[in-house]
Design brief:
Elements lengths: L2 H6 L4 H25 L3 E9 L5 E11 L5 E12 L4 H15 L6 E6 L3 H4 L5 H8 L4 E4 L1 H15 L1 H17 L3 H13 L25
Parallel strand pairs: 1-4, 4-5
Antiparallel strand pairs: 1-2, 2-3
Helix pairs in contact: 6-7
Protein name: DUF4371 domain-containing protein
Organism: Adiantum capillus-veneris (Maidenhair fern)
Length: about 220
Amino acid sequence: MPIAREYSAYMSTSVGKEFANAIKQVYWERLKRETVASPFYSLQIDESTNVTTQQYMVIYVTYMRENDNGSICTSFVDLLHVKNVESQSLYTNLMEFLVKMKLALHKMIGIATDGASVMIGANNGVVLRLKKDVLHLLGFHCVAQRESLATRNAFKLYKEFKFVDKVTKKLYEWVSKSTKQHLSFAEVVKDFNLGRSRKLKLLKIHNFCGSQEGKL
């Protein structure tokens, strides 16, 4: 068989999926062993709906990695397909996930979510349901989202922030137009004694918006 034809077989969609599933299985088993061995763990979860209106719950886990001098590690675990994003449905799917991962409830010490009522609702939120099973559980409103909401409100309320926002966007537009301008900007940053520890990478400024408006 010609070399080109032999190796081209590995470029098919079906083979690609097979490789991805094999990698997933190895990663999953390693992660399961590490999290089960950890003396404690915490979860970060969020619900979302994709462009095809399918609903999911993304799960991250933070745990102590014993074979790495007890370092704290946060890893992506799974993207669960859920029937709906109501509190009971999310809670049920999460409990099934914990059973699948063989994670003991008494080892769970914290859970971070967004500020949606389905998550932190005082009557039937997912966090409240979990606290009934795990009395010592601590619930946290995701710091990243709180910062996003605070920044969005600050940019609306204070004209100084609006000016900063305008300048940074203009700067990005100018620098991103050419490599030469990017290099020139890098020299300016260097002259101000900034960015010496790592290679300069200009990031695009994104608009901030709240999840309660369905735009986050």
